[in-house]
Amino acid sequence: MSVDTHTAPAELSDEELTSLDAHWRAANYLSVGQIYLMANPLLSEPLQPEHIKPRLLGHWGTSPGLNLVHTHLNRVIKTRGLDALCVWGPGHGGPAVLANSWLEGSYTETYPDITRDAAGMARLFKQFSFPGGVPSHVAPETPGSIHEGGELGYSLSHAYGAAFDNPDLLVACVIGDGEAETGPLAASWHSNKFLDPVRDGAVLPILHLNGYKIANPTVLARLPETELDELLRGYGHDPVHVTGDDPAAVHRAMAAAMDEALDRIAGFQRAAREDRATDRPRWPVIVLRTPKGWTGPAEVDGLPVEGTWRAHQVPLAAVRDNPEHLRQLEQWLRSYRPEELFDEHGAPRAHVLACVPEGARRLGATPHANGGLLMRELPLPPLEKYAVEVDKHGATLHEPTRVLGDMLEDVMRATTDRRDFRLVGPDETASNRLQAVYAASGKAWQAAVLDVDEHLDRHGRVMEILSEHTCQGWLEGYLLTGRHGLFSCYEAFVHIVDSMVNQHIKWLRTTRRLPWRAPVASLNYLLTSHVWRQDHNGFSHQDPGFVDHILNKSPEAVRVYFPPDANTLLSVADHALRSRDYVNVIVAGKQPCFDWLSMDEAKVHCARGAGIWEWAGSEDGTREPDVVLACAGDVPTQEVLAAAQLLRRHLPDLAVRVVNVVDIARLLPSEEHPHGMSDFEYDGLFTADNPVIFAYHGYPWLIHRLAYRRTGHRHLHVRGYKEIGTTTTPFDMVVRNDLDRYRLVMDVVDRVPGLAVRAAGVRQHMEDARQRHHVHIREHGTDLPEVADWTWDG
């Protein structure tokens, strides 16, 4: 893109204009055909009702604008020799992008039965929004796509994620004016403060203002141009406007705008890369104003359609039953003069394809949209380098995430030259004890830097912005274009991206069924600052329900882990970073935690997912345990071990089994999840007839939901978070939610047959300890010494 930024763009020649317009008309024709037709694709005979689909589904309103953008991206990619990717933001833009993919040939290469002839065109038309066909969105099935257009708000953050560490890539991003009203999109405008003109590619936002949503005008389209310009300039962009409804004039204006924008981008990159300029560029944004439903019916049944909200979906809704609608549809289709665009066999004519680039530079064929083709294995170091020494179970304490931070530092360092690993999070890297990574890479930052700032780096790969939506979007775009990463977040606030992770899981599930989609690195969450340790934040920061949300999703794509100590966290993180096509959720504390397992024990235990800690129980192997104490999560594990210790002291003849669960999906039946246990396995671990007291990190009913079909479910009693929280001591949190060691012992007494009478004194002793706790914390503000100074005695 080494073009003089001061050179005025050359105007289109008449031949170029004719070719661009032909390509645009062909894409419009194919878009309308997909919405309406299931036969007679070339209109080789008069249109009849039987040629029309019985159910008319799809969205016309945004399609002509998307077709215009695609046509003109083709032109600049070809003439400038660019590697480019486009993120298509407007919802239901599928007809346009499918049409262009078919025209350029990438669709046929991906789906050989959809040939570039009349028969293939008919199949292209019929499959759209048809049973057994393809969605109306730009979906995983769409060649060249990394963005599902169903839910709005994420296009621009996805585009920036794709551009990070891709210095030779242009990422165009079409933002619909409806999408521009969403919170996630509004926050993602600030991504330009994190884009490094030296090491990253460029993002060209194209704000498409066609004026309407489903039934209402859009905010940005109704702003005066001066006010809109002030808004975009405030975001750090320099707007270039294209406005009109005359095709020839719009083509010329769009070509000039694209040239101007790309010349500016080339100038910024050259200044940063060759002249070492450090000023933050004011990147261009194209503001494209064209009518909604442009070139479609101007009026239907006496009501205006083109340029109004009525063009949003299907402008002519009764074509099979209303002869006038059928006549209008045929007139509309023939207005594109298909005989000039396709030969007698249905293939696009040469002049239609004159603007289309070749090979991998076609937008539907770029490998950047199939990132698994470009991905390299992450250079992960051996875990033994970071392992905590455990000579005796529970004898030492470490902060698990701080230990993980040392490992991530080396991963960051090992990818310094290849630049394919990033750590993202909402201003919480140091808070979550991962600050060791700063020794290998600073925090990406292109805005002003003050003397008091620390670790800011124009070329950094640690990404922090106080928008969980933007963090998620960046990482999704980064992963889908073939790189690796980790999202660190406070547990309670990761809920902000509930809907975004829904979409990503649906994307992964769909791509698993597309053999041409190569696997990509998993989306990995590290959730810390969790519910049980919010000493100063309190109730607002206490919500462990993200895992409930995740485990509702496709079992083939989701994994949830609760490593109980530093070494198990290392093992789980290593597994997650090596995995492909999953969403991995890892919940781990950042506070000092007992070291329960050696590295070798941790690897075996994590591979098993759930297992008996023989050293923690009091079984002698001669009979079934009287009770199973199960746990998942670091704090519940400590409370279970403390309860086991109390039981050994007060009820030494009781046979207690301790089971720790790292992989929570192990509780599911094997037919419901790939990691699930068979009934035989489950009954062997938890028993079929004996009481199980399960201390769980999150909401207790999740465990019941996972295990409700098990033989022993009637004997399962779960303790967990009951939505009772405040700013209080660590132990008081577990007491308030009945997860504490004393309550667990009381549960054992209550549920093991014969203990209610025989161990009534033990139960009373436990209740007294809880009362002493309540008095002590209100007087001293700290936990009981027997709790605060507790150690595992082995």
UniProtKB/TrEMBL annotation:
Residues 590-792 form the Xylulose 5-phosphate/Fructose 6-phosphate phosphoketolase C-terminal domain. InterPro entries: Phosphoketolase, THDP-binding, Transketo_C/PFOR_II, Xul5P/Fru6P_PKetolase, Xul5P/Fru6P_PKetolase_C, Xul5P/Fru6P_PKetolase_CS, Xul5P/Fru6P_PKetolase_N, Xul5P/Fru6P_PKetolase_ThDP_BS. The keyword Iron does not apply. Its EC number is 4.1.2.-. Its cofactor is thiamine diphosphate. CDD domains: TPP_PK (cd02011). This is Probable phosphoketolase. It comes from Streptomyces corchorusii. The lineage of its organism: Bacteria, Bacillati, Actinomycetota, Actinomycetes, Kitasatosporales.
